[in-house]
Design brief:
The chain is mostly helical. The chain has 7 helices and no strands. The protein has a single domain (2-19, 41-193), classed as Up-down Bundle (Ferritin). The protein starts with a helix and ends with a helix. InterPro entries: DUF305_CopM-like (IPR005183), Ferritin-like (IPR012347).
């Protein structure tokens, strides 16, 4: 499993690196690679909640970025969406593994109080995703970018929660990478809108 995660992470880096150059403005991953942080079973409740919230959030992100495959958007937007998809699939694999290693479930269930205690519900409403999917081609790209910006902003908020209260080095390292990369993606997408 570790080899598969490393392979997917490597492919993600190659995809992003192969599709961009310093002059084209595309975001490349930042922070240490997952394999450079020594794995430990030490964790706290914040680490668990972060991973559970992030997995659910990532799965919604995958729904959103897959919309770019079926709609008319510029090539830079398609490339960014594809890179996000590969990265988030790899991150889900890592997060699921860590929770499994800790004997924790992938989801905290639907206890909204738990979410409220950790900054609120950071999900994107399924109705919003469906509304963007139904937009005509002339309006889709702008709606897609606005929805993805809001979604990635929520990822930054979830990562901040872990950076401030987590204790597990892998989980905190992932939160650092999510915080940096999603902030950069937001800036990139705002540039596409202007």
């Amino acid at each position: 499993m570790k080899r598969l995660v490393a392979l997917v992470a490597g492919l993600s880096l190659l995809l992003v690196a192969g599709c961009s150059s310093p002059s084209d403005g595309l975001v490349t991953p930042t922070g240490p690679a997952p394999s450079t942080i020594a794995e430990t079973a030490e964790h706290n409740d914040t680490d668990v909640m972060f991973l559970q919230m992030a997995i659910a959030h990532h799965k919604q992100g995958l729904e959103i970025v897959k919309l770019a495959k079926d709609h008319a958007v510029r090539s830079d937007v398609k490339t960014l969406a594809a890179a996000i998809e590969v990265t988030q699939l790899s991150e889900i694999d890592s997060m699921t593994k860590w929770l499994g290693d800790w004997g924790k479930p992938e989801s905290s269930g639907t206890d909204m109080q738990l979410h409220a205690d950790h900054g609120g519900d950071h999900s994107t409403r399924p109705e919003d995703i469906a509304e963007i999917a139904a937009l005509p081609s002339g309006e889709f790209e702008k709606g897609f970018l606005n929805l993805l910006i809001a979604h990635q902003h929520n990822a930054v908020a979830i990562a901040k929660f872990e950076r401030e209260g987590g204790s597990n080095p892998q989980s905190k390292g992932l939160a650092d990478r999510i915080f940096e990369s999603r902030s950069a993606q937001i800036a990139q997408m705002l540039g596409y809108l202007n």
